[in-house]
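Self-study notes.
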Amino acid sequence: MNFGTYMGAATAREMVIGYGDRAPTADELKQMQAIVADAMRAGAFGVSTALQYPPATYSTTPELIALAKTAASYGGIYATHMRSEGNGEMAALDEVFDIARTAHIPVEIFHLKVAGHENWGSMPKVIAKVDAARAQGLDISADTYAYTAWGNDLASFIPPWAHAGGNADLLARLKNPQTRARIEKDMETPSDAWSNDWLEVPGPHAVEITSVHNPALKPFEGKRLDDVAKAWHEKPIDALLDILIKDHAATDVAVFGMSQPDVTLALKQPWVSICDDAAAQAPTGKLGQGHPHPRAYAAFARIISKYVREDHALTLPDAIRKMTALPAQRMGLTRRGVLKQGMWADIDIFDPAKLRAPATFEQPKQLAQGMSYVLVNGVPVIADGKMTQALPGKVLHGPGYKKMTDSR
């Protein structure tokens, strides 16, 4: 495949000030901006954030604006998993718009959603707010993987203060009776200060264990949190905390926290493209371990099989545009994303009536079916439905890329 990337704002933060819950000094912020500038010259497409997760959670809006300005000076974009997708989503959108307006930078909202059962039905308000910002001249777009469950670290259920210092400090707090009690209390107390997934999900059955690192926990992959609690004869919140301890805070989960009408409405917006938001997977080998979210196998085929063919929520041309031309345009890939003479030949050939996405949450490791040919840079990587073992993918560079000169 072709591969391009962003510079993570949290990566720059860790490189300069570590995992601490504090703002950077003026000098430290300059160092972080220099790191972003280096990344942009090396080919990054922009700066990205995931503001629900420490240490990104500790970033202030002025800090993010400063880094976004640096990316903008090289023609980059700001791509963000917003600070909240649940109870605090409207405030999170205001922050996104503030960054776009002040840094004069295009913004991509990663996997637009409305999280939390109490917020279901709020997508029309989210869409209206984004549309209003776009009407005011802000360059805002988004993407979605069109499932009603998101994928995440189980540790994301823990309040941000408990993550300060990194995983070792988090585990120490979970093992300490006093700090564990405080963590539990915060998880069970409504708050606008952080994105509290524990109160936003419908219940422990909405949390599926998808990947663990401790071999002793492997039997729980594919199981729900309430199943673990029953097996261990404890409350679901205690089971969650104990899994983190036993798995060294490295557990991945799928969380069923969205409603289908909200997901469909987001997908239908003309400024929303398709993503998969999944790590690379394979049915076997090192990339085949765990019990992944089915989006790793089926995100794009499912759009056509479900949302085009079954639900008639999108037309086929709409769906194809959202997978090709629209994301290419957002990334500034002017020679990709459409079928036209002189463009890079990234081409899929398939019969829309035969495309299938068999991967499910119960059995996710099932390859999509019905793709006849896939060409990457003009070279077939799938031919007659089978992998060719060709490796024609290229590293894609953002607008600030400058080739490194040989200093020898």
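Second protein, same conventions, sequence then structure:
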Amino acid sequence: MKIIKMDKSPREPFANPIFTAPGVTIQKLVPDSKDFNLNIVHFPKGVRNKFHTHDSEQILIITSGKGTVATEKEEKVVTVGDVILFPAGEKHWHGATNDSEFSHAYVTRMGSQTHILE
């Protein structure tokens, strides 16, 4: 068994072409897992990721702020405590609203690829 204190996990810059602007950070919570990716991503106000898909399901757990999650068919505002499930292959994006920073934990299967679509 391993216990991770989220507030003790360091934030690292997360520069990636999937984001619409710089300033995103990541906390790697279980880097030793053989089955799952579990990280917290922090978005500055107004920053989101671009439309993308994953090879596995993706679960988001909102940990702070207010954000938007969207598919091609709908957009929803989400807040702390909301849990979102994106099926494998579903085109989607997520990020901070213009008036709030935003953080979420995400879970994907280890080895799942992300495909940027815009």
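Instructor comment on the second fold: The chain has one domain: 6-116.
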